[in-house]
Amino acid sequence: CNFLQIMNKVNAYGDVENVVMTCEDWKVRWEKKHTRFHISEVNSSLLKHEHLLLEKANCSVFVPLSGKSVDMKYLADKSHRVVGLEFSEIAIRDFFAEQNIKFTVEKHPSHPFNIYRSSDSAITIYQGDLFQFNSNVAGKFDAVWDRGSFVAINPSQRVSYCDVICEMLNPSSKWLLNTFAYDRSKYPGPPNDTSDEEISELFDTRFDVKLLEVYDSLNPAQISWGLDWFKVRNSLLVKK
Ligand SMILES: C[S@@+](CC[C@H](N)C(=O)[O-])C[C@H]1O[C@@H](n2cnc3c(N)ncnc32)[C@H](O)[C@@H]1O
Questions:
Q1: Residue 31, domain member (yes or no)
Q2: CATH number, residue 131
Q3: Taking the CB of the first residue and of the last residue of the chain, which one, N or C, has fewer CB atoms within 10 A?
Q4: Which residue range(s) make up the domain with 181?
């Protein structure tokens, strides 16, 4: 699917242009099951750093662009209140079916979201476009778990993405951000390459940014994208 999308975005000179993904493009990916980004185990970066993200019990945790991430169930099982946000209805319904969780669905009375809520109310997933989401819809959050989210956003929309999430945080709220760095001349994304300078530019004024770790992680999927190196970066952002 990525390959086809890349081919579709080749310009008249034969150059691959930045692949811009719309919500509709993501919806089609879910329909066609082009979801290799999904992992069936709890994310290892979350397991490693959750003690820094969630220092107290009963936190409200936002999982933007949640897909059907099993991390939502993991966090809810630890007694946190989890709110996901996802455009694809298939992803949300798959999540509840695969995790064997009963749920209800209702329309938000004033904003363009369907609200999927587990019957114990521990997990709520809003279905709609992140760029229409704000604290009037679901309140403010203590923590954000961002895997496959920031990196899925088109680079041209990163500032808006950060604005949307920032508005839903209080001072001292924390954001665990998982990003990737690779040679973007070889693969246009998504997931989109993110440099240290970009993280600094986007976050330094509004957050204390702590680099937790950077490590090399080249796997067969990335080799098939023509990459020779692939770095994973985990950062903890604490709202000023
Ligand atoms: C790369 S996937 C990652 C999913 C999940 N975070 C994970 O780690 O498995 C990105 C997800 O964001 C969703 N998405 C992309 N743009 C969106 C938007 N503007 N609003 C809501 N969801 C969006 C896609 O449907 C997709 O499920």
A1: no
A2: 3.40.50.150
A3: C
A4: 44-239
